[in-house]
Amino acid sequence: xxxxxxxxxxxxxxxxxxxxxxxxxxxxxxxxxxxxxxxxxxxxxxxxxxxxxxxxxxxxxxxxxxxxxxxxxxxxxxxxxxxxxxxxxxxxxxxxxxxxxxxxxxxxxxxxxxxxxxxxxxxxxxxxxxxxxxxxxxxxxxxxxxxxxxxxxxxxxxxxxxxxxxxxxxxxxxxxxxxxxxxxxxxxxxxxxxxxxxxxxxxxxxxxxxxxxxxxxxxxxxxxxxxxxxxxxxxxxxxxxxxxxxxxxxxxxxxxxxxxxxxxxxx
Length: 267
Fold this sequence. Notes:
Distance between the termini: 59 Å
Oligomer: single chain
């Protein structure tokens, strides 16, 4: 305003009508432009700093909420897994106490992993595979000889690739729940393969749906798998589930991409 008044005063009182605009105007415009630029820059810097602070707070809040949700899901998984395993051992006690005792020993190994490793966000892939193998051996105890169980694990020796713990176990539980018939030939094939920046879990089993009155599990495990995949590997996984045309074979395939940014989050 001061610059404007000064310019107006000089123009009215000092310069005749036929005289060019005094050169001082150039300096006035320069000073005004500098003032406007400095003010705008200062406001922009303050706004940018505030915006960055708000975004950082949002990211921290999202991270904390995600970790809390994952912790809640893992806490739900422990009793769910334990309940299913105890039901299997209970079924063994009725007709084979020796196998039931062996199953209890195997269960102790599994619980050690579930109680300690499951509290971490990620575990080395080789440890997760050991757990899966121990679980499958436990399940073998209770199935009949007419059930063919095949496992194929193609991973790097002592692989340290980080993976969310127990991410595949619900799929394997589901295969044993719906893939076994007490009176018909049945099969379960479990394949876990490690590629460069990618882990693939393929489960194929005969399909013997349980009766509607059988509420064991109630689909909780598969629901949790989806939630955990969304929270842990958003945009970095693919899950395909489908029945064969005749409805006799069920397939469940999960592919997880372990990209460089994801690995940084895991470690």
